[in-house]
Each structure stands twice: as C-alpha cells, then as structure tokens.
Specification:
There is one protein chain. The chain has a single domain, classed as Spore Coat Polysaccharide Biosynthesis Protein SpsA, Chain A (Alpha-Beta Complex). It is 39% helix and 18% strand. The protein has eight helices and seven strands. Strand 1, helix 1 and strand 2 form a beta-alpha-beta unit.
C-alpha cells in the first residue's frame, strides 16, 4: 500500500524543508510519495523548492519515498493546491499536511493511519483538543468549538475538531467528491460532503504545536465567518 502526502505551500520558506525531511525519514512500513504544490509563493519558498527538486535523488535511488513538486503561477488558495496535488496522487491513502510545523508528522502519522489501515475508517480526523497542544488563544479556541458544534448539529455527528489540519483519507473518498471552495474553505466543505455521503469517520488525538501570526499563521477571523456560510451551503445546497 502507498501513502500520498499532499503539502499545499504558500510562503513557508522557513519550514517547508524541515517538513519534507521529517516525512521522508518516517518509517511507516509503507511506500510514500510526497506531493508539494507551491501556491504562488513570493517569499523565496518557490526558489527553495526548485533547489530542493534539483538536488533530489532519482526515483530509483529512493523507491520507498518519491517527491513530486508542482507550482501554481499565482496564489489560488488551499483548496486549489489540494486539487492540483490530488490529480497527481497515486497512493491508496492520502494525508494532507500543512507546510508549517504545527502538525508534526513524526508524532501524528501513525495514529492517523491506524484506523484506515485496520479497516475501520474511510476518513480520520486528528483532534487538537483531544491530544497534546499548545495552550493559547482562547478566542480562536472558542471559534473552533462553535464551528465544530455547528457541524455536529447540521450533520448529527460528534466531532471535537472540525477545522483540524491533520486528516487522512482513503483515496476513494475524493473520487466521490468534487471540491469547489476557495482559500481556507476546504475544511468545512470536505467535512460536509464526507458526512452527507456517510463515509466512516474516526477521530484520534494528535500533537498540535500552534503558532501565532508573527510566526506565520495565515487564517483570519473572516475565514471563520466564511466557514459558517460554507457549512450551511454544503449541507442544504450542494
């Protein structure tokens, strides 16, 4: 079985190399492919990825881990970067990995993969609130809890962290779902469509090393408001 790790990247020159190295060095007893999509970065990330791409060994030299690097000519948002990566993914299982260091692969991948590999789940959510996490930002916490509670009401479920950036999927999940959202709309959209299609969803505790805006965090309060509209839209319209 092969794991495809999708990494949408926008202006993460300080961390993307570290994330790439950490994933490459993970021993998961699975073949791995890493698909990086640079979404129009202008901070040096694109140049770094081109340099890394040129220095990578050939596929034959590292048969258990291949790396594909793709580029958008302009910033299109997280969902579009994920869609580009999905079109190139060949693994039976997919993990979507943020390019920062908030969700450490070495701490999270085995627990994310277990319910899928054991045959229990189609989708696994890594919950920041059930696992080890940095303690800060009460209002962000409250907003996340509100969005998760709204999800549970609309879809009659019991998630603890809808907006988590650590998720694992069977590839067939994406064969049944067309993504249409913009920017950070991926999380509410994929959640709504997963539950509407009655995929088996499990939730596991993860490590979350949250960062502040000075450290590079990008999601804004307006994105939370858009998430509310997205949940209603995909529940009743799409």
């Amino acid at each position: 079985m092969k794991l495809s790790v999708i990494i949408p990247v926008y202006n993460e020159v300080r961390t993307v190399g570290k994330i790439l190295d950490e994933i490459k060095n993970l021993d998961l007893s699975l073949d791995k492919e890493i698909i990086i999509v640079d979404d129009g970065s202008d901070d040096g990330t694109r140049e770094l990825l081109l340099k890394i791409k040129g220095a990578l060994p050939s596929v034959s030299d590292m048969p258990q881990c291949t790396v594909k690097t793709l580029f958008h000519d302009k910033n299109k948002g997280k969902t579009e970067a994920i869609k580009t990566a999905l079109s190139a993914a060949s693994g039976e299982v997919i993990i979507i990995q943020d390019a920062d260091l908030e969700y450490p692969p070495s701490k999270n991948y085995k627990i994310l993969l277990e319910p899928i590999l054991e045959g229990w789940a189609d989708v696994v959510y890594g919950s920041r609130f059930l696992g080890v996490h940095r303690v800060f930002w009460f209002w962000h916490y409250l907003a996340n809890k509100f969005l998760t509670a709204l999800t549970n009401v609309l879809f009659d479920t019991m998630l603890s962290d809808m907006e988590s950036g650590a998720k694992a999927f069977k590839k067939q999940v994406f064969e049944n779902i067309k993504l249409t959202s913009l920017r950070f709309g991926f999380e509410p959209e994929i959640t709504a469509k997963i539950f509407k299609r009655r995929f088996r969803v499990y939730e596991v505790p993860i490590y979350y090393c949250g960062r502040g805006y000075k450290e590079g965090k990008k999601i804004k309060p307006l994105d939370g408001i858009k998430a509310i509209f997205s949940l209603f839209k995909y529940r009743f319209i799409d």
